[in-house]
Amino acid sequence: MNRLRNQLNRIDTIFNRMIACFVILVVMVVLIIGGVLTIQFSYNYNRKIEELEQYRLEYLEHKINNLFEESNRIIQEITSLGNKDKEIQSFLYHPMKNDFFKAVNLLKYLQTLSTQNDSFVSSLELYVQNNDVWISTFTGINYTDEDSKKFKAELDIFGSEVQFQGSKRWVSDRVMKYSMREIPVFSVTSGYPLYTEEESRYKGYVIVNIKKEVLQELLQDYLTRGLDAVAIIDSKGNVIDAEGNVAGFQAFRNSNKSYMDELLLGKVKNNFYTVKDHIVMSQPVSMGDWTIVNLVSTKEYFDETRAIQTRIVIISLLVVLFGMILSYCFARKLYKPFHTVMSRLLKAKLNKKARENEYYYIDRAMEELYDKAVEKEKVLNDNKNIIKSDFVVRLLTAKLSDKKSMEDKLKFLGYSSEYTWNYVLMIKVHPKIYKNLDEIGKNLIIYNMINYFDNYKNESLQCLSADLFDGKVCVIVSEIGPGKEELKALRNKFTDYMMMNFSINPIILQSSNFEELGSAHEAYLSLLKLSEYIYFLPRAYFIDANELGDRLKEQRKTMDCHYETFSEALVNRNLEVINKILKDFIDEASSLSVATNYLNGAVLKYLFIYNYYMRDIMKGKNNETEHFKDFNDQYDVEDFYYWFISLIENTFDELKKVESNPSQTVADLIEKVIMENLEEELSLEFIAEKVFLSPKYISRIFKEEKGINITQFITDCKLKKAAKLLIESNMPLDELIKKIGFGSSNYFIKKFKEKYSVTPVQYRRNSIM
Predict the structure, then answer these.
(1) Which segments of the protein form a coiled coil according to its record (predicted)?
(2) CA–CA distance, 553 with 8 (Å, rounded to integer)
(3) End-to-end CA distance of the chain, in Å?
């Protein structure tokens, strides 16, 4: 018995224990992993198939969207043709019913465009409503005497109404018939002008007919298995087209109507369902109310998995065997130092002492590990500030949301998780001040700001701070309970500290309170939004999101900046009106009722109007570059106001020295615009836009100064130029009329005869004689 006990004692060594543990561990891990993988394989494989099919479905949707995008490109090319050819523009936008020649030119252009895109375009059609003409590459040119509303009602081009790039489109499935020919197409229809929302203002319609066979080919190319089906369904549940196992698709749809309805309405997460041995998924098409629905049979997939599962079992057994061998080798190598000592002790027949020595060596190894752990802990403590800063940044950027991780990190940093009343403070050094500091000054200020909050801690309040660069520090302030007196005291003490040590008054933005630290990200985002308005809140050194945050939720996109009134006041040298407009703008901006992008643009627009007008008035003396440089140096919108008013006052004083009549200057500027654009179809609106004044105002000023209305002046200038061209060139009369910008030859001849008492032809003949 004693002999058996001694033999067992010899076997019971650390080495044998290690081998046994390693072998058992490897076998258990492999068996568990193999079993779990085998059980979950079908599920995971099914998910992979869903991802693959979804990717392919997105690719199909991309190809279909390309058809619509190319169609819209063609529509834009056709509608922009008028910008390149004034005659075509007149035909498209003005009544010219008898001009068959322009209709033929349009047809030729449509035929060329259709040929260039014949890979997917069946035909192109254009309905010019003003001229009651239907131009089609399929049927040619047709005039209609019907009322336009009745004619449009008979067309089948107004199917589903959609929005594309801010303008209205119609998509319809129809069959085009002409003589004995029938061609199924999808029609994309747009009214022109493109960005007109009211149908009553449309001048006509452009129709791109896409070959239906192109869409069918895309669906056929998508299918890879005989049991699958793919279909396009509109919002009303009508099947636009279907390919593959259509009968199986219809049967599935009839038996699972509720699933299909939810899928088409977009109520399904990830846009797919798994029903028995089928996967059905959808992908909406960006233009139109179409949805692509794909029905995938998983029967073939599961048949393929059986062979794979068999291979997994074989591989698992091989891994077990390999793990046992590896365990032996690893334990032998790890035990080697002890084995040498144990061998010597065994020779001395000191079994008990040998076992004690084994454990002694293990104990010494544990002590060494402990020493290393202490060293690591020292390194962590030395870098606490870096870890704290990273922790704050991760909270503000929503990269840390696990509550347990937050509590562990707070405990490590020496902070309590019992402070449940939290705020985010964003402290900014004004950009104009921060920009003028050198690098050492910037680092010194930021370091002292962070150090102040790190050292500010009492029983009711604690602070976590981080440098967010560019003169911005964020602090998460936590209190035991509600009550802002301690927080207010913190703000006041910090402001006094900055003024006393650096003569800087920092800007402090304070968020609404929140209970969970994980909500710091939302509070930080609200402060970022508020910080955009610092320029428009003059001398505001404390901004509370509780007081101002609600205003940002009900913002308007624009406001009335009275640009025309501002321009007229510049012309009239009316500083009182200019002063009122700018003050009203500042008051409106400080109410936070308008987005900052618009406000910044409005400030620049005022400066641009001033520069544009003064460029002509000052005749090259106006330094725009210097103005924009001075503008960028302004501290806030209030400084901008005083600088801008001073600039305008100085300009008016300078103008008084060189001019006696401002209205004469405006009239001269209007005359200059007319002479530079004489070949255009000039109008009051066109000229007013050029000089940034209202049409009524320029009409009155010009009449007062020149003694003639603008329209008569334009006509006289055009006639003088025509008379000069008649004498100095051999230009045909039609070309001459077009060159000087007359819309009608009869009107030109009438006006010419009124002015010169002869027709243009007689005038040219008389000049030759």
Answers:
(1) none
(2) 80
(3) 151
Write out the H or E segment, with its range, that includes residue 721: helix 710-728
Between residues 697 and 449, which one has the greater pLDDT? 449
Rounded to 5 degrees, what are φ and ψ at 460?
-110, 0
Which residue matches tokens 């010194």?
Answer: 444
Name beta bridge partners: 544: 510
Nearest CA to 478 out of 458, 494, 503 is that of: 458
Pairing of strands 542-544, 507-510: parallel
CA dihedral for 308, 312, 318, 323, sign (positive or negative)? positive
Please identify which residue in the block is written with the tokens 């009449």: 703
Residue appearing with tokens 């990717």: 55
As to burial, measured by CB atoms within 10 angstroms (0-12 exposed, 13-18 middle, 19+ buried), residue 138 is: middle
Q: Please check whether residue 517 is in contact with residue 406, taking contact to mean a CB–CB distance below 8 angstroms.
A: yes
> What distance in Å separates the CA atoms of residue 286 and residue 302, rounded to the nearest whole number?
34
Rounded Cα distance, 524 and 519, in Å = 9
Instruction: Determine, yes or no, domain membership for 35.
Output: no
Residues in the chain: 769
Count structural domains, the chain: 4
Q: Domain range holding 122?
A: 80-215
CATH number at residue 744: 1.10.10.60
Coil/strand/helix, residue 349: coil
CA distance 244 to 280: 14
User: How many Å is the maximal CA-CA distance in the chain?
Assistant: 151
Domain final position from 539, 554, 569:
554
Q: Is residue 550 part of a domain?
A: yes
Contact 523, 421 (CB under 8 A): no
Q: Are residues 253 and 119 in the same domain?
A: no
What is the distance between the alpha carbons of residues 338 and 343, in angstroms, rounded to a whole number? 9
Within-domain flag for 749: yes
Residue 355's identity, in one-letter code, is R
683 DSSP 8-state letter: -
203 and 240 fall within a common domain: no
Q: In this structure, what CATH number is given to the domain that contains residue 274?
A: 3.40.1840.10
Residue 204 φ/ψ, nearest 5 degrees:
170, -170
**Who's near 737: CB < 8 A, 6+ residues apart?**
722, 745, 748
Least confident range from 441-450, 495-504, 734-743: namely: 734-743
**The two structure tokens encoding residue 224:** 């890879």
Residue 162 sits in the same domain as residue 279 = no
**424 close to 525: Cβ distance less than 8 angstroms:** no
Q: What is the DSSP letter of 513?
A: P
Q: Say if CB 82 and CB 88 are below 8 A apart.
A: yes
| Contact by Cβ (8 Å): 638, 655 | no
Residue 413 and residue 410: Cα distance in Å, rounded? 5
Of 249, 268, 297, which residue constitutes the final position of a domain? 297
Place of tokens 């202490």: 374
Q: What are phi and psi of 174, to 5 degrees?
A: -145, 170
**pLDDT of 348 above 50:** no
Residue in the block written with tokens 């004619």: 151
- pTM of the prediction? 0.44
Residue type, 49: I
Contacts of 311 (CB under 8 A, 6+ apart): none
95-142 residue pLDDT tens: 776 677 777 888 888 888 888 888 888 888 888 887 788 888 888 888
State how far the alpha carbon of 495 is from the alpha carbons of 118, 512, 621, in Å. 72, 20, 46
**Which residue type sits at 580?**
K
- The reply to whether 138 and 230 lie within a common domain is no
* DSSP code at position 1: -
Determine how many CB atoms are found less than 10 A away from the CB of residue 166. 8
Structure tokens at 732: 């045909």
Are the C-beta atoms of 129 and 206 separated by less than 8 Å? no
**Burial code of 693-732, b = ≥16 C-beta within 10 A, e = fewer?**
bbbebbbebbeebbeeebeebbbebbbebbbebbeeeeee
